[in-house]
């Protein structure tokens, strides 16, 4: 399975969270964008629902982050 780049997943997660906070007050436009980003997260993570997509995306981003012991101090 192809995997989305962690930077792409980070951006999708950021947009999802932003749209979720605006969802109740933003009308149809916000709802449509939230549906779009939810769908994209599902496709990008190979999942079928947004809850699983969020878990998978966050895990992929977490795994791609440099660990403290990987960082070399100068």
TrEMBL record:
InterPro entries: DUF5133 (IPR033457). It comes from Streptomyces stephensoniae. This is DUF5133 domain-containing protein. It comes from the Bacteria.
